[in-house]
């Protein structure tokens, strides 16, 4: 699965960004996003770190973004 940030739940606190070991989380003008090309779901660290530090449970896995990630690898 790939991780995404739910904009409706995200408080834009920024706690997740510095915790990401692959630097896949970045702040845009009005939200935080996860670059699916960079996100490896912290496979070297066990569970995704961003999920564990998010105070609002706004980061979750999605099959749809995994599909988009696969397509980007072959385009």
UniProtKB/TrEMBL annotation:
The keyword 4Fe-4S applies. The keyword Zinc does not apply. GO terms for molecular function: 4 iron, 4 sulfur cluster binding; metal ion binding. Pfam families: Fer4 (PF00037). Residues 1-30 form the 4Fe-4S ferredoxin-type domain. Keywords: 4Fe-4S, Iron, Iron-sulfur, Metal-binding. It comes from the Bacteria. This is 4Fe-4S binding protein. It comes from Candidatus Methylobacter titanis.
